[in-house]
What does this fold into?
Amino acid sequence: MATNVTETTNTNQDRTEETTAMASLTTCVAGRNVIHGPSIWTDLLELFKRHPDPVYFGDGSPDKDLIPLERLKEASIRAWDDAPGCLGYGEQQGFAPLRDLIVERMRPLGIEGSADRILVTSGSTQGLDLACRVFLEPGDVVLLENPTFLGATEIFRAYEARLVPVDTDADGMVMDALEAALIAEPRTKMIYTIPTFQNPTGSTMPLERRQRLVELARQHNVAVLEDDPYSELRYDGDVVAPLVALDHNVIYLGTFSKTIAPGIRCGWTLAPAGIHRLLVANREVSDISNDRIMMRTVYHAAEGFLTDHVAGSLDVYRSRRDAMLGALGEYLPETVTWSHPDGGFFVWITLPEHINATDLANQAADNGVIYFPGHWFYPNADEFNSIRLSYSTVPEDRIVEGIRRLGETLRSAPGA
Amino acid sequence: MATNVTETTNTNQDRTEETTAMASLTTCVAGRNVIHGPSIWTDLLELFKRHPDPVYFGDGSPDKDLIPLERLKEASIRAWDDAPGCLGYGEQQGFAPLRDLIVERMRPLGIEGSADRILVTSGSTQGLDLACRVFLEPGDVVLLENPTFLGATEIFRAYEARLVPVDTDADGMVMDALEAALIAEPRTKMIYTIPTFQNPTGSTMPLERRQRLVELARQHNVAVLEDDPYSELRYDGDVVAPLVALDHNVIYLGTFSKTIAPGIRCGWTLAPAGIHRLLVANREVSDISNDRIMMRTVYHAAEGFLTDHVAGSLDVYRSRRDAMLGALGEYLPETVTWSHPDGGFFVWITLPEHINATDLANQAADNGVIYFPGHWFYPNADEFNSIRLSYSTVPEDRIVEGIRRLGETLRSAPGA
It folds into this structure.
């Protein structure tokens, strides 16, 4: 995915001048830009043109119909009423009462945080970016689940890290494989993991693996980056302690993107004091702070209705997950297997090895179903027989119809 | 300002464990973190303790009493009403109607932009950061005004750039000095300039210098980063064409921080297409997008009342500038000179060479006046006889009183 900096021809004189000089400016960009190739969204938009009414299983968002807009608007009005004096520069760490509430929200997960080690970020994407700023030199190694969250791999690559995928099974990252990687890769700076309701697989790492992971990280003196956007969205079973509850040295990334909405760009980091201080310092030179009105809006939401809102959403998402698991059993060929998530947004489908899910995406779209090909989630893009399905934004009857269409597509695939 | 990562002693067992392991984690942070020393705000807060009612000339913000809170709140309510469907991920470039309005707002400055080359950013701080991501490798050279904006130098240093200051006079950057620097520094990637109502000096670069600057940049194939937060705040005289109006290859940074409020974190970049595409791509891996509600709030403000609001603010700021210039003439010793800005927020004071404005800051604070020592703004911190004063947030009578106190302090300085 090398950057293509060649410009198209223009007729206008000004534009032509611009093109000429700009082509030379683009020759002096930094090496890190080589990662910015065509976006997957370009391909996706093409798929949408193939059917009048496709079922879209791609979203990693909460359902927009569940977003509590009216109550958020009221919280926002209160935030503006609080505003005199709060609209200057400031609050680099984040609005203090919001940080206190974040500590409260993490407690049911077993996390004993403290507000002075929390940094409010522009989504957990920025938390990831800042952790990279703190730790990564070009050529440093990041160990991560195989497959893992596409957005994270793009960030690590922007810091010119070398990504070393670690094998996973139905219980997440395999610890013997992690230990072998730590030994084989002395330049490892960081282990990146999504231990709970993983993206893309939906798997959850059991407690014993978590304990071993933080022990291995300590032994090898590498940072652990725990990305935890989905823990509050558990539909079954008991909480499994987050890594940061087992070891204060873990750098934890939380977000309101899944419990409120992605568009408000509000997440947080919890880190040990020395690392926290560097995260804050790096945040100052990135963009200073979050929007101060939205931090107060989220505060009023979190102290008011958010817990109830999340509890209500769980019922909807649980039913959708159940609808998807049921339909998969009904409509998919016996050669196909899938994960059984206890929470989060995703089910991971494994096809027979000879079926290429990326090639199949066009036929699926013609047949009215759009999914994310699994190979997008493999850092080395070396596996092609898997599919990520999200059920979070699709009503139950549409889920059933979408899986029916997927089953039909799969059955017609050569050799399925 | 090397990073001090040593932790203080803790008594609690957990904290001690954390401290030990964390000390070792902080040994593996990336080299770029070495820049994050103690913040100037620590020193400033100490100064505030020295007098019961100090006059504070440090702010780089609009006056909070001028921020149109009620109308912004109404704009925000409209934004929430527009919200259904807009709270997912998306709008990486920024809300399209806001980008159209930004194009409109730049037209009176002589800028013919286009919305498809605008990226909405989290303040112009993020624009600076993204431009660094696009261009800078460690060791690359950035040429900049001496003195210049402290926040910018911190960002360039976070990219491990080498900063080469270029001489300035009352008309801003001296072009012969710039040319000499371009020849002497073949690794120059970027010229950073604030040509209009410069921070910290208040100077404005005349048209002929601007034309020469963009010519020199083309000849040497280096990027020009034009930071322009103050152009809309002109109190006297005619618009001088921004650099980007003279050459489409300039990367222009605009912001609503001075015309609305810093706390909303909303600015923009305007760049040639090839560079714009890379700015957007780098934005995606930084934090995806601005808060989508606030982008709509700013849109409703910009299409509604913002032009009137800015016009009204000009009268207030003009009177404050005049009050400051008048008081400087009345109270400062004849050995002192200062700039005469046509707009923006700052006046730059030059003291006799033997007076150290940094040392004097404590006495000034005891005497009830707080300023930013000029040496903070010299990239090499090699000049000590200057002071930045901001008049934007201080009522006229307090400006006069503050300058009277400053004059008293200066007269009592040894050898003033």
About this structure: The two ends of chain A are 31 Å apart (CA to CA). Confidence is low (pLDDT under 50) at residues 1-16 of chain A. Chain A touches chain B through 92 residues (CB under 8 Å).
